[in-house]
Design goal:
Oligomer: single chain
Number of domains: 2
CATH superfamily of the largest domain: Band 7 domain
Order of helices and strands: HHEEEHHE
CATH topology of the largest domain: Tetrahydropterin Synthase, Chain A
Number of strands: 4
Family: Belongs to the FliL family.
Protein name: Flagellar protein FliL
Strand content: 15-25%
GO cellular component, one term: bacterial-type flagellum basal body
InterPro entries: FliL (IPR005503)
CATH architecture of the largest domain: 2-Layer Sandwich
Membrane topology: Single-pass membrane protein
CATH class of the largest domain: Alpha Beta
Largest sheet: 4 strands, antiparallel
Length: about 170
C-alpha cells in the first residue's frame, strides 16, 4: 500500500498545479473579455476625421466651413505679455506670470491691456506668505480671476496660468 500511495501523490500535485494554471488563464481571459465588452459599451466610437473633411465644404485656408476646427475655437483666448513685478514683502522677491485670458465672446484688446495692468498692480500688493503653497496659489488664481471679470465687466470668462515663477 505504501508503494501505491507514494506513486499516486506526484501526479496529484502535478495535476493540481496544472488545474490552478488553467483556472488562472481562464479567469484572465474572462476578465479581459468582460473589460473589452464594457469598454465598447461605455466608450463611443471614434469619429472618422477623413469622412467629415470630405463631406464638409472647405472654408478659408482649407478648414471646414463654420470654423468648427479652425480659428473660431481659439479666437476667444488672448495670451498676455509676461508680467514681472516685485512682491510687497519681501520687496526683493520678484514674480513672473504668463497668463492667458479666455473671453466669453470675441477678444477685446483694450480690455486685455486693462486687465494686464490691473494684475500687475495687484501683484505688487501681495506678500510671499499669501501665495505660498497650493492653497495660496488657488486663492491667488481666484482673486485674479475675480478681478479680471470685474475689470472687464464680465467679458473675461476665465484666466489660465501658463507660468508662475517666484525668485
Amino acid at each position: 500500500m505504501t508503494d501505491s500511495s507514494v506513486a499516486a501523490e506526484p501526479p496529484k500535485k502535478k495535476s493540481a498545479v496544472m488545474l490552478t494554471a488553467i483556472a488562472v488563464v481562464a479567469l484572465t481571459l474572462v476578465g479581459g473579455g468582460g473589460g473589452w465588452v464594457v469598454g465598447k459599451l461605455i466608450a463611443p466610437a471614434p469619429a472618422k476625421p477623413e469622412a467629415e473633411s470630405h463631406a464638409a465644404p472647405a472654408g478659408e485656408h482649407g478648414a471646414p466651413a463654420g470654423g468648427e476646427h479652425g480659428a473660431g475655437a481659439v479666437s476667444h483666448v488672448k495670451q498676455l505679455e509676461p508680467i514681472i513685478a516685485n512682491l510687497a514683502y519681501p520687496s526683493d522677491s520678484l514674480v513672473r506670470l504668463e497668463i492667458s485670458l479666455i473671453f466669453g465672446e470675441n477678444v477685446d484688446e483694450a480690455v486685455a491691456g486693462t486687465v494686464q495692468e490691473d494684475i500687475l498692480a495687484y501683484m505688487r500688493t501681495v506678500s510671499l506668505q499669501q501665495i505660498q503653497g497650493p492653497r495660496g496659489f488657488s486663492y491667488l488664481r481666484d482673486d485674479l480671476k475675480e478681478r479680471a471679470k470685474l475689470r472687464s465687466q464680465g467679458k473675461v470668462a476665465d484666466l489660465v496660468f501658463r507660468t508662475f515663477v517666484i525668485e
